Amino acid sequence: RSLMGANMQRQAVPLLKPDAPLVGTGMEYVSGKDSGAAVICKHEGIVERVQAKEVRVRRISEVDGKEVEGDLDRYRLQKFIRSNQESCYNQRRIVSKGDRVTKGEILPDGPPMDMGELALGQNPLVAFMTWDGYNYEDAIIMSERLVKDDVYTSIHIEEYESEARDTKLGPEEITRDIPNVGEDALRDLDDRGIIRVGAEVSDGDLLVGKVTPKGVTELSAEERLLHAIFGEKAREVRDTSLRVPHGAGGIVLDVKIFNREDGDELPPGVNQ
């Protein structure tokens, strides 16, 4: 049982609101400090400036019984970094301007920490009782507040890629001009056909607009009508855009574009 419990702790994901355990072993601070997830103060000093991404500490040393100010140390914080397991690596400051810190003290918390202590779970109130049969055998009942208050909410950062390749029928094109797609579906795409940073997306929404050439096919009744009205043949392309997978969704954090024309190294046959 102890081995299974230790293995389950190893699989814990960082929570949005970590909470240090009420009942601990006394080693939570040591474990958090030695985990490498926190930033440790290198010299004794006074906190001069605190920002979301940086903490500045002015060194204090004692010379002939008097305190003398020294160099300014800058400690960078990592914010919303994607880990290999697609979890969110985020460091939060736990000191304020004017605080006196000592060498070896934790300045910002790491992802699985709360005020310097290792925090892998939460401290919910648990009752061992019956409740109209809803918790029969191994079933459990959870309060709606656990969801509303984001007690067990975690952030996950996923990465999606789209490639524009050379095909036998011609090159693929990343564009905003996608056949049979309404303007409402294109509202968050920029002029290049790529989703804007900060857009909120859900399953099925467009991330990258892309069209692929298709072979000569028989014109449908709709295409013949368009040809008769506008006097031009509809483009022989099909929609191969990148969309949000089923069940996924969130807010776009970053967009990176690699282009062969700009000198970026891409696999053979990939233009963008």
Automatic annotation (TrEMBL):
EC main group: transferase
GO cellular component: DNA-directed RNA polymerase complex
EC identifiers of the protein: 2.7.7.6
Coiled coil start-end: none
Gene Ontology BP annotations: DNA-templated transcription
UniProt-listed PANTHER family: DNA-DIRECTED RNA POLYMERASE I SUBUNIT 2
Annotated protein name in UniProt: DNA-directed RNA polymerase
Entry annotated with the keyword Disulfide bond: no
Gene (name only): rpoB
SUPFAM superfamilies: beta and beta-prime subunits of DNA dependent RNA-polymerase (SSF64484)
GO MF term list: DNA binding; DNA-directed RNA polymerase activity; ribonucleoside binding
Database matches in Gene3D superfamilies: 2.40.50.100, 2.40.50.150
